[in-house]
Amino acid sequence: MRRQLIVICVGVSLASCGDASSSTDSTDTSTSPDVTTDDANRSDASFDDGTIGPETSTLDTSIVTDTPESGTDAPDVATDVAIDSPTDAATVDPFGVREIYPTLAAGREWYLPADADVIKGEWSPETDDVTKVSAGVFHTFGEGGQVRLNVVSPAGKAWWRNVEMTGYFRYTADKVCCGQVQHWELFARGERHSETNIAGTAINGGVAAPAGTATWPGYPYGSSTVDVHCLGTAYHGNVYPTGRVLFEKEVAHFDGYAPQKGVVTLDRATFPDPKGRWFGLKFVVRNAGGASSVHLEVWLDEKADGVFRKVTELDDTKGSWAAPAGSLDGCDAAPFSYKLDQLMTWAGPWVTFRSDSIETDFKWLSVREIAPL
Predict the structure, then answer these.
(1) pLDDT tens digits, 156-185
(2) What angle (nearest 5°) sits at the alpha carbon of residue 301, between those of residues 297 and 305?
(3) What's the DSSP call for residue 258?
(4) 181 vs 76, which has greater pLDDT?
(5) For 5-63, how does the pLDDT look when each residue is reduced to its tens digit (9 = 90+)?
(6) Which sequence spans correspond to the domains of the chain?
(7) 366 beta partners
(8) How distant, in Å, are the alpha carbons of 77, 152, 184, 240, 265 from that of 262?
(9) CATH code for the domain defined by 2-33+40-369
(10) Please, are residues 88 and 102 in contact by the beta-carbon 8 Å criterion?
């Protein structure tokens, strides 16, 4: 099925911080050169003098093709995407990257530290292979190709609920692992994705949610053993080297995946092969209608030229998006009592920047708390 998607571009100002080189990327099966050097004089954006780049806003009428995988629901892609643009056209983050939605007043913010090759504080990658490429630019291949870069919630920090996550990535080499298709994804509203049960007191490293936090049903769980599958709840925003973009819903880890939705595939003119080339990715998850639905968006700066476009969006409403029957890993039982179409409107202590079967450079990662709709 082929649809026309009207997408509005929102300009992003990029300061000349960290690495800003041009690149090219790949499909799911090709091999790639190892590109781990920093190109100080990039060709994809001319902001090398330390100034903030120009703000631009253009209308893009690029065509995308809906290509749902066998067995998945038809993609939920609006043909005329409505944009909620912030009123302050000059809003950028500390890296100079455009913020799509403003940070909530007194809301939590996190930005990739300059020493991200050191695990500390909120920055909690699951492997210690992160290495520094140049100022502000880092490289990882994770555990044999499985990268999980977590931002956790120390004492005194709000848990992540309504968020705008941002990152820039450069595909440097193949690292095929574990039957995983090559891709990047950002996800929120849960904690660890594991198969080993834990005590309730071990959730989030033993740091309890701040008083009044809306989180998993039945929380807190005390010292009793918790079914860890039920902590792995998440909404995901995925991007593939082929230009495929989609959402996933994970009611339980790992048999609680609902069919993929919001599926689009960008052509190569829109999303050039990302092997050896930077691109920007934003994932937005926020409650709407008094938490009666969950709204999701994926934005891309496909050519790392400072312009983000919203390429797909979706509203998860009651009964609209369900995991297959009998697939909740036991999480339909108390204290979680999840439904197949569970709306995950709660906050989770972790958010994660993930990639699979790829060695990747990354920079300018951030997570900001935004307002619900």
Answers:
(1) 999 999 999 999 999 999 999 988 999 999
(2) 160
(3) P
(4) 181
(5) 334 444 444 443 444 333 333 333 333 333 333 332 222 332 222 222 323 333 233 43
(6) 2-33+40-369
(7) 111, 166
(8) 5, 28, 16, 14, 10
(9) 2.60.120.560
(10) yes
